[in-house]
Specification:
Elements: H1 3-19, H2 23-41, E1 46-50, H3 55-61, E2 71-74, H4 78-81, H5 102-107, E3 116-120, H6 127-138, E4 142-147, H7 149-152, E5 171-174, E6 182-185, E7 191-194, H8 196-217, H9 233-241
Parallel strand pairs: 1-2, 1-3, 3-4, 4-5
Antiparallel strand pairs: 6-7
Helix pairs in contact: 2-8, 3-8
Length: about 250
């Protein structure tokens, strides 16, 4: 691989990660940590939702070693797994643009009033993303949005409300991805070097660390997973998961 391109991509990634720990970004991240910690103290869980590659963000938040146990994922595939829809609806990318599935999705998702929602979407304009955000707010939940402000402000909302995720969330965290997500342009004009998955993963870990710190500072033992691949991992994790039985989902 061309070393110049590699170095350019490394700069694009690391410069954005650096910006995420600077005051402008940390203000939003701190506010999000406060919302999550308050939810967990009240007995709530984190409900995380994303479509497309934003599902990678959800996987960083939910059910991973070093992550918070009271977390659960909401996914469009739940319409098949728990709602009885045919698998054919998962073909292609149209479902994420369909706002009509939101109520059905909530119907098959166990939630409590104390739960806090995190919705991740680079564009922040697709029907299911905006629909879930609106439905969460209508049900009284606090909402954190993770999105690219550069991208979302450059495109037209696709939800009938005309809103963007960034216009609905109580706290908005900018993932700093450029318009179109690609940070480099090849000589022939091809855009490459997506960054949103990397910055989103970093954001997810900053949220986890910040919430664990807040819970620890208040005298509580943070409910955090340890790797299932070390001795005692399963026992530790299952004991804590039992406290949220029926409220958090773990699938293969």
């Amino acid at each position: 691989m061309n070393e110049t391109i590699t170095s350019a991509y490394l700069h694009e990634v690391t410069s954005r990660l650096q910006r995420l720990i600077e005051p402008e970004a940390t203000a939003s991240i701190d506010a999000a940590c406060d919302l999550i910690a308050a939810s967990l103290r009240a007995g709530g869980v984190v409900q995380a939702f994303g479509t497309g590659h934003s599902q990678a963000f959800v996987m960083e938040v939910v059910g991973r070693a070093g992550g918070l146990i009271p977390t659960s994922s909401m996914a469009l595939r739940d319409l098949v797994l728990y709602g009885g829809r045919d698998t054919s609806i998962l073909s292609g990318g149209q479902l994420e643009r369909d706002d009509s599935v939101v109520e059905e999705l909530f119907a098959v998702t166990p939630t409590s009033p104390e739960d806090v929602f995190i919705v991740a979407s680079n564009s922040g304009v697709n029907g299911s993303i905006v629909g879930v955000a609106l439905a969460a707010k209508e049900r009284g939940h606090r909402l954190i949005g993770v999105t690219s402000l550069e991208h979302t402000n450059a495109v037209t909302p696709k939800h009938p409300s005309g809103k963007r995720l960034s216009e609905i969330a109580d706290v908005v965290i900018d993932n700093l991805a450029p318009y179109g997500d690609t940070a480099l342009t090849l000589d022939d004009g091809t855009g490459v070097g997506a960054v949103s998955s990397i910055t989103a993963a970093f954001i997810a870990q900053l949220l986890t660390i910040g919430v664990a710190e807040r819970l620890g500072d208040s005298g509580a033992k943070p409910p955090v997973y340890i790797s299932a691949n070390i001795p005692g991992g399963d026992e530790h994790n299952h004991a804590l998961e039992d406290a949220y039985r029926g409220r958090i989902r773990r699938t293969a």
